[in-house]
Design a protein that fits this description.
The complex is a heterodimer. Chain A is α/β, with parallel strands linked by helices. Chain A is built from 21 helices and 15 strands. An eight-stranded mixed sheet of chain A has the order 10-9-8-11-12-15-13-14, with helices on both faces. A five-stranded antiparallel sheet of chain A has the order 2-1-7-5-6. Chain A has a two-stranded antiparallel ribbon with strand order 3-4. In chain A, α10 links the parallel β9 and β10. The relative contact order of chain A is 0.08. Chain B contains 16 helices and 16 strands. Chain B has an eight-stranded mixed sheet. Chain B is extended and about 110 Å long. The chains are: A alpha/beta, B alpha/beta. The interface between A and B is large, with 146 and 134 residues. β13 of chain A pairs antiparallel with β14 of chain B. Chain B: GO terms for molecular function: guanidinoacetate N-methyltransferase activity. Chain B: This is tRNA (adenine(58)-N(1))-methyltransferase catalytic subunit TRM61.
Chain lengths: 637, 484
């Protein structure tokens, strides 16, 4: 995909100053690089990436070439030279430890030359501003010569230490060399660009190392080609407030981000990604049948709107439309469904499926989902004006797509959840975690730690234990009912503290749950202390990763002096969706308050009933808790 | 069947590898099977049993359940078995509760039905490179998730890439790399098309010079169903490079575009990774794509030497980073006199007011004590009221202050990562051809430049409508006009 520079790809152009410019390559255009000159796009189209070009002076131009490829040996020339001669030109001009020279104690010799005599004097440079400007505007001269001239005219150049000389040379090169390097604009390059050149907060200050970490922990990978009779897989559920950057990163890992340009030899396939899948809503097929009679002459094959069922991203968004503006760098515009004649539409059109929170949680309230456009007969259709007919098809397609997306999303079974949002992550997890299959990874990014700390707390071992106890207590209430009033009161006495506060409410709720509790599933507690079901996730882990950049130069290796601050990589919460044991809810028997004995009794009962129950006290998820369990086990034995 | 790493399927099945989740830092990779084929699996009434500190888990309770399920330990007799010359894991005996008649069930031909024990539970999770990394048998220094996730991203290991890894080490990176490049499952390939398919389907070529480690990685790949993606080779890459042995011993290029060198001396391997073809040895790199390399070295001297070699070998975009990763622990901190006597709390006054109150009370008590010396045990009683067992912590789970701190043991340095890029070879002839081709573009009309905006589309269609001059049939996707 990035084997050579192609249009209409976006590319990153790195300038000598280190700044990066993102440009879309279109043929026959002049791309301006500001003070570093300009060049014709045709001069780089078809060339490999990562080449450094230098704009040629008029004197050097021939055959219409105004660019020259700078060889790697030329780029590294100075450093290689420096390595070969550690003395750097002069005999003892290095103030740093010198490999070749040692004093009588065997310590590296430092020279007496230092910056002690260097005076910051504006008159050091003997060339005047006008003279330099004249040199610069002289098209026949070469920037390298210009730098040499400027340096030769520096009064204190010989006073400079190796460090300051190197720095000085570099500064002049940055200022005058008319070079640029073409870098492919993949997710890595785009993230770096947005971090360094653009409004970093717009992408939630998410960095490359964090994107990599999230992708790995979320276990994002490609599904591979679909095999027959297989259930769908590699379906990832996402919430993304980074303008589509996270979606792009995930899609890149799944191999569906970069648009494959068809080569001229192969015939353009209509749906190259995936053959039609079973289980497509019948509406789509009906539609195809309706269309059939109206075709009277051969026409171009329509774009296949069938949504992919594997290797997909389902994005839930808070606004009417998702913000996926950054995907335009990858030739994808979600607002623009591919035209029916588009020979090679972007894979994301079928693999990226978006829906709003309303469509996910209350689909009946959403007009697109709930109001199906009336189906028309073929007679009606042929009587319509063509633009009305295409309108009809468009509406039908839109509705069918929405319905399919919403229905499959609500059916759940996703293989991973990846979240980066301004919203409260707990509210997101509350609704989305139940849609994951067991063993699916959950990854939540936040530039600040506080929201994730709260998530950790909601899914903590202690809260889970309390939740299960509360659940059991209510279950006991609902099973025993009012028949065993005395028991209930003893229970309440046992559950001291805050549990007593909402006694009346609890009783009312217990009555409510009585009906539902007879089923297999436990009701989710309607309790502010349990904002999400803590039994559905393993105890989360919080990660923080930061890539520290170094400079590696002969004798001058050290970490970079400055770096971007802010979130500094942010924080990543990782957890796994699990399926807690459910079924017969055991009555809390035995001596109340003695948790160990109670669970033992409960277990025996469960075993005899053939369905094991959850054991809150033997929670072996957190480190501390497991130690406790161990102790309990030992004492029991 | 596809590897459980890529497609575990809806339920656990016989022969798959599963990751048994004990705690956050403790996962146990297990090959699920009901048939005890190995010596150490023999002797259980329930078939194959995995013993953990949370009890014993017969595999019959782990197979054919949905992934992610919580499974209770079972009552398994490990004691009887221990007498039959078994030396391993006898310390786990304490976890098992002895059953009443173990001998009877051992003699019965069918497997004993497992019964639940109250020693604990585990979760059965599908294997991932991450869980494998935390649980794998250490043979060498392991490349951990923060490092390999960054490396794989930076060397652009994507579905369909061809990746070289040297050396294989403990296989942590190998698993992650296999997932990154995985694109398809070339399982039903005949040999003829294998070489063709090799380059399109995403491959990992892993090299290891240590014979034993190589064998282990090779076996692991087969056990994990990754051998169709990962080719393990026993080779000293310093000396012999990265070529594959094709037919009749001819050198064959792996055509790699991502390279990861976890070697003590990467500079000795780098000369084998050039663009130059020699008559008998083709370049190990893919001539049609950019090559990305990463070296993984713990010492700065190694980095300097590597970078210096890279410069001489024309690698570009040389960068060095170190990944600083930490895991953060979140917990509730309890400070206050009311938590006195509980474990893991700060039994000091939470506020100045509370301190004042306590001090006043002490003063008062002292005064009372002076007045009435018989009233000795009052203050003690006060403390004892708060003094309770651990269940008290559970009672207060919603209180305290939410705090976070770094994990107690930090990995402050793993290794330095050096990244570099080798562009495709670009000769004067290539330049001439490219120039000839771009010359053709000059003549063409402006090609389509990506998706158009809504506005632009409307404008276009208006223009088209104008050109068609009333012939509406041509508008919008060329739908033919049905009525002539």
């Amino acid at each position: 995909m990035f084997d050579k520079i192609q249009f209409p790809q976006y590319v990153a152009l790195r300038l000598p100053s280190g700044t990066v410019k993102v440009e879309q390559i279109t043929p026959n255009t002049l791309i301006s690089l500001g003070k570093y000159g300009s060049f014709h796009s045709n001069q780089i189209i078809g060339r490999p990436y990562y080449l450094t070009f230098e704009t040629l002076d008029r004197a050097e131009q021939k055959d219409g070439r105004d660019l020259r490829v700078v060889k790697a040996s030329e780029i590294h020339a100075e450093t290689i030279l420096e390595e070969a001669e550690p003395d750097l030109g002069e005999d003892d001009s290095v103030s740093t430890p010198n490999a070749g020279q040692f004093d009588e104690y065997g310590l590296p010799l430092t020279t007496d030359k230092s910056n002690v005599n260097i005076i910051d004097d504006p008159n050091n440079q003997k060339l005047t501003y006008d003279e330099i400007e004249a040199l610069k505007s002289d098209k026949m001269s070469n920037p390298k010569e210009l730098i040499t001239k400027i340096m030769a005219n520096h009064a204190q150049l010989d006073q400079k230490t190796a460090f300051s000389l190197a720095k000085y040379t570099l500064r002049k090169q940055k200022k005058y060399m008319k070079r640029f390097t073409v870098i492919p604009l993949d997710v890595c390059a785009l993230t770096t660009f947005l971090m360094e050149e653009k409004d970093f907060t717009r992408i939630l200050e998410i960095r490359n190392e964090t994107l990599g970490l999230m992708g790995s922990w979320a276990n994002v990978h490609a599904s591979g080609p679909a095999l027959e009779q297989e259930e769908s897989r590699c379906r990832y559920l996402m919430v993304d407030d980074t303008g589509g950057l996270l979606v792009a990163a995930v899609a890149e890992r799944m191999g569906i981000l970069h648009h494959q340009q068809p080569t001229q030899s192969e015939p353009s396939p209509t749906h190259p990604h995936k053959p039609k899948v079973e289980g497509v809503p019948t509406e789509m097929q009906d539609e195809a049948q309706i269309e059939a009679p109206s075709i009277q002459r051969p026409r171009r094959q329509r774009y296949d709107h069938t949504l992919a069922t594997s290797n997909t991203i389902t994005l839930v968004h808070a606004n009417q439309q998702p913000n996926l503006s950054l995907l335009r760098y990858f030739a994808f515009d979600h607002t623009q469904p591919p035209s029916s004649v588009e020979p090679n539409p972007h894979q994301l059109h079928t693999h990226l499926q978006t829906l709003t929170w309303l469509q996910l949680l209350q689909p009946e309230a959403d007009s697109t989902y709930s109001s199906e456009p009336p189906v028309r007969t073929s007679e009606e259709l042929s009587a319509l004006k063509p633009n009305h007919r295409s309108n009809y098809y468009r509406k039908r397609r839109r509705w069918a797509r929405t319905k399919q997306v919403v229905d499959t999303a609500r059916a759940g079974g996703f293989d991973g959840l990846i979240v980066a949002t301004y919203m409260d992550p707990i509210s997101v997890l509350k609704h989305l975690v139940p849609l994951l299959r067991g063993g699916a990874q959950v990854v939540v990014y936040s530039p600040t730690i506080e929201p994730l700390m709260e998530v950790c707390d909601v899914y903590s071992t202690a809260r889970r234990t309390a939740y299960l106890q509360e659940m059991r207590r209510r279950q006991a209430l609902s099973l025993d009912g009012t028949a065993d009033e005395t028991k209930e009161t003893s229970q309440k006495e046992d559950n001291t503290g805050r549990m007593e506060v909402g006694d009346e409410d609890d009783k009312a709720r217990a009555d409510e749950t009585r009906d539902t509790a007879s089923g297999q599933e436990l009701p989710v507690l309607d309790d502010a202390r349990f904002p999400a079901d803590p039994t559905l996730l393993l105890t989360p882990a919080l990660h923080h990763s930061y890539a520290r950049q170094w400079q590696v130069l002969p004798g001058r290796t050290h970490p970079l002096m400055t770096a971007k601050g802010g979130a500094e990589g942010g924080y990543v919460l990782v957890s796994t969706r699990v399926i807690p044991l459910q079924g017969v809810i055991v009555q809390a028997r035995g001596k109340p308050g003695r948790a160990k004995k109670r669970t033992g009794a409960g277990l025996d009962q469960a075993t005899s009933a053939g369905t094991p129950i959850d054991n809150g006290n033997n929670d072996n998820l957190g480190g501390q808790a497991s130690k406790r369990t161990k102790v309990e086990n030992d004492t029991a034995a | 069947m596809q590897s459980a790493f890529f497609n575990p399927g809806p339920t656990t099945t016989e022969g798959q590898i599963a990751s048994l989740h004990l705690s956050r830092d403790q996962q146990l990779p297990v090959q699920l099977t009901t048939v005890a084929s190995r010596a150490e699996d023999q002797g259980y009434a329930e078939g194959v049993v995995t013993n953990t500190r949370f009890g014993s888990f017969p595999h019959s309770t782990l197979i054919d359940i949905p992934w992610g399920c919580q499974v209770l330990a079972s009552k398994v007799d490990t004691g009887t078995r221990g007498r039959d010359n078994f030396t391993h894991s006898r310390k786990r005996k304490a976890n098992a509760i002895s059953t009443d008649s173990p001998t009877d069930s051992t003699e019965s031909a069918s497997l004993k039905q497992a019964t639940a024990a109250n020693s604990g539970f585990i979760h059965v999770l599908p294997p991932t490179p991450e869980s494998w990394t935390t649980s794998l048998p250490h043979r060498t220094q392991v490349v951990y998730t923060p490092d390999y996730s960054y490396v794989l991203q930076q060397i652009r290991a994507q579905p369909g890439s061809t990746l070289i890894e040297a050396g294989s080490g403990s296989g942590s990176f190998t698993h992650a790399a296999a997932r990154a490049v995985f694109q398809g499952a070339p399982t039903s390939l005949n040999n003829a098309s294998k070489t063709e398919e090799m380059h399109t389907a995403g491959k990992v070529f892993t090299f290891e010079f240590h014979a034993e480690r190589h064998e282990k990685v090779k076996t692991e790949m087969e056990e994990h169903g990754l051998d169709s993606i990962v080719t393990a080779t026993h080779r000293d890459v310093y000396k012999d490079g990265f070529w594959l042995t094709g037919e009749r011993g001819a050198y064959q290029s792996p055509r790699a575009n991502c390279i990861f060198l976890d070697l003590p001396a990467p500079w000795e391997a780098l000369p084998h990774l050039t663009r130059q073809d020699t008559p008998d040895k083709p370049s190990a790199l893919d001539p049609d794509s950019t090559a990305y390399v990463c070296t993984f070295s713990p010492c700065i001297e190694q980095v300097q030497r590597t970078v210096s070699t890279m410069r001489r070998l024309s690698w570009l975009e040389i960068e060095m980073v170190e990944i600083q990763h930490k895991r953060i622990e979140v917990k509730r901190e309890y400070t206050g006199l009311k938590y006195e006597g509980m474990r893991g709390v700060n039994p000091v006054a939470a506020t100045v007011d509370e301190a004042l109150e306590r001090l006043r009370q002490v003063e008062e008590n002292a005064r009372e004590h002076q007045q009435d010396t018989r009233n000795k045990s009052r203050s003690k009683n006060g403390v004892q009221q708060n003094n309770s067992s651990e269940s008290a912590v559970q009672k207060h789970w919603d209180e305290g202050k939410l705090i976070h701190r770094a994990e107690p043991e930090l990995k402050t340095h793993t290794s330095y990562l050096v990244f570099a890029v080798l562009p495709r070879e670009w000769t004067e002839e290539d330049e001439a051809t490219a120039r000839a081709r771009t010359g053709q573009i000059d003549g063409q009309s402006q090609p389509k430049t990506g998706p158009k905006s809504q506005k632009q589309r409307k404008k276009d269609s208006r223009i088209r409508a104008g050109q068609a001059n009333g012939n509406v049939g041509q508008v919008d996707g060329g739908l033919p006009n049905a009525s002539p």
